[in-house]
Design brief:
By secondary structure, this protein is of the alpha+beta class. The chain has one domain: 3-Layer(aba) Sandwich (Aminopeptidase), CATH 3.40.630. It has helices at about 15-30, 35-40, 45-60, 110-125, 140-150, and strands at about 5, 65-70, 75-85, 95-105, 130-135. The chain has a 5-stranded mixed beta sheet with strand order 1-2-3-4-5, sandwiched between helices. Strand 3 and strand 4 (about 95-105) form a beta hairpin. The radius of gyration is 16 Å and the shape is globular. The model has no long low-confidence stretch (mean pLDDT about 90).
Amino acid sequence: MKILIRKAKLTDVKNLVYLSIELRHFHALLSGKNKTLIEFKKLKPNWKSIFKKWLIKNIKSKNSLVLVAEYWRELVGYSLFQIKDNVPIYSITKLGHVSDLYIKKIHREKGVASKFKKEAFKWFKRKGLKQLSIMVHSDNKKAHKIYRKWGFYDYHTELRKKV
């Protein structure tokens, strides 16, 4: 059986939270023991309920697309795409943004991310967008390579500092 890509439903929210936990764990591993990065990624005690509400809002929104990858009725990945306002001084007023993209390790390198991308790019085109953005963890070299293959280029680097 192959992996099915479909729009997320409200009934998927609980499982999407679990996938989000895995994504955060993966990012924690990438951050290592860097205390500053760990502090920046510290979650609120009620983060799960906040995230659930945010997911529901995005699933219902006409300016968001939440996709899931399903294998034997189990969610094995998800992606979240949004339309955001650009900085008002620019002629391009709206940007497409890849907010989250996560696939369970056992299902990686099977073309799932490319299927997410294909569906999202079609959706962004239907919405009339011409520019997309994505953020990637600075130590996630594999994802960075995939996004470059998709046509993304380095635009800016965000630096952070504790004061």
